[in-house]
Specification:
Structural class: mainly alpha
Strand content: under 5%
Order of helices and strands: HHHHHHH
Shape: globular
Helix content: over 70%
CATH topology of the largest domain: AhpD-like
C-alpha cells in the first residue's frame, strides 16, 4: 500500500467514516482502481494541503457538487462529511443558498433536497431558526 493511499484513507476515515466502505464496495468488482485514484488524489493530495481546514474544504465541496447538479450521491456523501468535520446544518444550507446565485435555483433546490435527506437520517430536522 502506498503512502499516498494511507494518507488519503486517514482523511476519509475522518470525513466519511460511515460511508467509506460503501463507495469501495460499489467499485470493487468493476473499477477498483477508480477507488484507489480517489483516495490517492483528492483525499491525499488535495485535502491534506495547507491553507484550508477540512471544515472549509467540505463546505467548498458541497458548493461545487451543488453547482454541478449531477452528482446527487456524492453531494449527500459530502454533506455528511461536512457534518462529520464540524459544520452545522445551517452552514451547509447557507452554502447551498449561496450557490443559487451562480448555478441557479434548480441546482440549489436539488442541493437542499439532498441536505434534507442527510439531515433527516441524522435526526437533525427541523433546523434551528
Amino acid at each position: 500500500m502506498s503512502n499516498r493511499y494511507e494518507k488519503g484513507m486517514e482523511i476519509l476515515k475522518i470525513t466519511n467514516k460511515d460511508t467509506i466502505e460503501e463507495v469501495f464496495k460499489e467499485l470493487e468488482d468493476i473499477a477498483p482502481d477508480l477507488g484507489r485514484f480517489v483516495v490517492e488524489f483528492p483525499y491525499s493530495e488535495i485535502y491534506t494541503r495547507d491553507g484550508l481546514d477540512l471544515k472549509t474544504r467540505e463546505l467548498i465541496t458541497v458548493g461545487a457538487l451543488t453547482a454541478m447538479g449531477n452528482a446527487e450521491t456524492q453531494l449527500k456523501d459530502h454533506i455528511n462529511a461536512a457534518l462529520n468535520v464540524g459544520n452545522t446544518p445551517e452552514e451547509i444550507i447557507e452554502v447551498i443558498i449561496q450557490i443559487s446565485a451562480y448555478a441557479g435555483f434548480p441546482a440549489a433546490i436539488n442541493g437542499v433536497k439532498g441536505a434534507k435527506e442527510v439531515f433527516k437520517s441524522k435526526n437533525l430536522l427541523p433546523l434551528k431558526k
